[in-house]
Amino acid sequence: MDFSAPTRRPRSESIVPMINVVFLLLIFFLMTSNLARPEPFDVAPPSASLETEPEVERVLYVDKTGKTSFEGAEDAAALAAITAIADDEQAIQVRADGEVEARVLAGLLQKLALAGLSRVELIVTAQ
């Protein structure tokens, strides 16, 4: 009879601490990230030389056919939504396609002025 102590097998490493760290990192990045809405349609803005990057606030999208979108509302509903939140302190940014006709953009600016907006910024891409 052999009464000696049995040989111990080495204990395997637990991966629970690593899983905890991964989930903590995931939660951290989800809490600190800035999720942006996707653009309602593909817009290629005109190019210009920029000194500073514009801050994204309220953006009115205009495609090359003149169709507008603002916070999920399109065309006349978009202008109505802008009118409902219009104030003189905050500018509305217009992200228009580079191929949109100037008369369409001028008509849109006139409608925005009639809605009570005094500040409108046109978004362009850097050259």
Brief descriptors of the model:
127 residues, alpha/beta, Nucleotidyltransferase, domain 5
Note down, in words, how this protein is organized.
The chain is 31% helix and 17% strand. The chain is of the alpha/beta class. The mean pLDDT is 82. The protein has a 5-stranded mixed beta sheet with strand order 4-3-2-5-6, with helices on one face. The chain has a two-stranded parallel ribbon with strand order 1-7. The longest helix is centred in the first third of the chain and has 17 residues, at 16-32. It has helices at 16-32, 76-85, 102-114, and strands at residues 47-48, 58-62, 68-70, 73-74, 92-96, 120-122, 125-126. The protein has a domain at 47-126: Nucleotidyltransferase, domain 5. It contains 3 helices and 7 strands, in the order αββββαβαββ. The radius of gyration is 27 Å and the shape is rod-shaped.
What's a concise summary of this model?
This protein has 127 residues and is α/β, with parallel strands linked by helices. Helix content is 31%, strand content 17%. The radius of gyration is 27 Å and the shape is rod-shaped.
The major β-sheet equals: 5 strands, mixed
Please report the number of helical segments. Answer: 3
The structure class reads alpha/beta
Name of the top-level CATH class of one domain: Alpha Beta
Contiguous low-pLDDT stretches (5 residues minimum) are none
CATH fold topology of one domain: Nucleotidyltransferase, domain 5
- What is the share of helical residues? 25-40%
State the CATH architecture of one domain. 2-Layer Sandwich
Query: Alpha-carbon distance between the termini?
Result: 88 Å
- H/E element string? HEEEEHEHEE
Question: What's the gyration radius in Å?
Answer: 27 Å
What is the arithmetic mean of pLDDT? 82
Number of strands: 7
Widest β-sheet, arrangement of strands: 4-3-2-5-6
Strand residue content: 15-25%
